[in-house]
Amino acid sequence: MSDAGLPAAEAVESHVRAFFVGHSVEAVDYDLGPERREVVPCLRVLVVAPGPRSDSWAYVTAGCWALMQKDRYGLEFVMTAHVRDQRFIDLMAMIAYYHCGGHQLDLEHSMPIGEPWVPGSACDHLLISLPYLHGPRLEHCPLPGGHARVLWALPVTTAETEFRRQHGHEALEQLFDDADIIPTDPFRASVA
Hints:
With 192 residues, the protein is of the alpha+beta class. It has one domain (5-155). It has 6 helices and 8 strands; from the N terminus they run H-E-E-E-H-E-H-E-E-H-E-E-H-H. Strands 1, 2, 3, 4, 5, 6, 7 and 8 form an 8-stranded mixed sheet that branches. Strand 7 and strand 8 form a beta hairpin. It is globular, with a radius of gyration of 16 Å. The N and C termini lie far apart (41 Å). The model has no long low-confidence stretch (mean pLDDT 90).
């Protein structure tokens, strides 16, 4: 583990708390277990309750940057959801492990979840996108010795992922805009 691990995770947490001032923010230390612990040893998932900035729950990783940063730049991830649920904390830990464990994610990438986002949802992939619901103030996170970019893990369907592969990221985002999707709705219809 890099010596920057814990201070970087703490700096991400401070950034999130400052951005979501007026919201309750819980830091959940997440142990991936003995087989995976060394991949993201200082992982925290920040659970942000609804408040003045957003009426949705936000889940933010803190702990990826120190392991995966290059040239003092790395990523953390945010997901928005309609409720507080341990499922989303687990999913953020899965994203961190996937990213730091050899499948380096970046803007416009996607990853399979392996099951529905929530039971009964058609969304079974995550699309890594700009954090449109929160904007650039959350996205750009200064850290000791560098900076992190907080990107959005947006639940999408298999059909939407395939559409993105064939037509590009911007074309898929245009479909989202045209359909005026509610990104926190796990039961939204697929746009592709």
